[in-house]
Write a structure and sequence with these properties.
The protein is α/β, with parallel strands linked by helices. The protein contains seven helices and eleven strands. The longest helix is centred in the middle third of the chain and has 20 residues, at 148-167. The two termini are 23 Å apart.
Length: 242
């Protein structure tokens, strides 16, 4: 059997979606066990207000991730736009290895760029302005100094505000900018890009500097979990059962 590398993103785990959490826990205990590696490319949680938040399903998810990493499967995590406050304590408790916003890996001999995907949506200027502020150490330190209850209330307000803002944005603004995709792939010298964020799963064939390239968009898990699987010979999208 060929070793398999797994890619997922945009699970948006939260208490009101217990079925998604159950599917993820089953995935960690079974399908991901023994994989060459598991990559979680952001938005594992719908909201993460700090590693000191005891709200469900955080505790169960952390325990399941710890069991998987202890079994010998390396698990890599990349911040998304919903869980960028996952910090050192979470990583230590789970054994996850943190990836940079732009991470290039050797995927069975091919340089492959991994991203959450939000940095490719360069037409969404208000979001990028907020992102720059929210990723600063000063902003994060200020937020994390507040009580957990206040942070949770703010997160609910921000989620509601984001919902209404999205209703006024065109589909094109919330999708990737093709020129940005090309520029980023050229900058990192890759012909394969894997990302999530846009909730528009697809495999795109594009041309980069005259060469054929691939852009894989991972699916969200709201309506059923899927995983992008690579081995030495091929790749495929796998729908999870259970």
């Amino acid at each position: 059997m060929h070793p398999e590398t797994l890619f997922i993103s945009d699970l948006h785990l939260r208490p009101t979606r217990p079925a998604v959490t159950r599917k993820f826990l089953d995935f960690l205990a079974n399908r991901a066990r023994g994989a060459a590696a598991l990559y979680i490319l952001g938005d594992l949680f719908d909201t993460w207000v700090g590693d000191d938040d005891p709200s469900p399903p955080g505790r169960k998810v952390k325990a399941a991730l710890r069991r998987l990493t202890d079994s010998g499967t390396p698990v890599y995590f990349q911040h998304g736009n919903r869980d960028f406050l996952i910090g050192k304590r979470f990583l230590e408790e789970t054994g996850l290895r943190l990836l940079e916003d732009y991470s290039v890996i050797d995927l069975y001999g091919s340089r492959t760029l991994l991203m959450h995907g939000d940095l490719l949506c360069t037409d969404d200027l208000p979001y990028l302005e907020f992102r720059k502020k929210a990723r600063s150490p000063e902003w994060q330190a200020e937020v994390l100094s507040k009580p957990v209850s206040l942070r949770l209330a703010y997160a609910r307000w921000y989620r509601l505000r984001s919902y209404f803002h999205k209703r006024n944005k065109t589909a094109e603004i919330m999708d990737v900018n093709p020129q940005t995709v090309e520029s980023v792939m050229l900058q990192h010298r890759v012909l394969r890009l894997i990302h999530g964020h846009t909730h528009r799963p697809a495999e795109h064939r594009i041309e980069i500097n005259g060469a054929l390239a691939q852009r894989f968009v991972l699916a969200q898990w709201e309506r059923g979990g899927t995983v992008l699987v690579f081995n030495e010979q091929r790749h495929w999208i796998e729908a999870l059962t259970g």
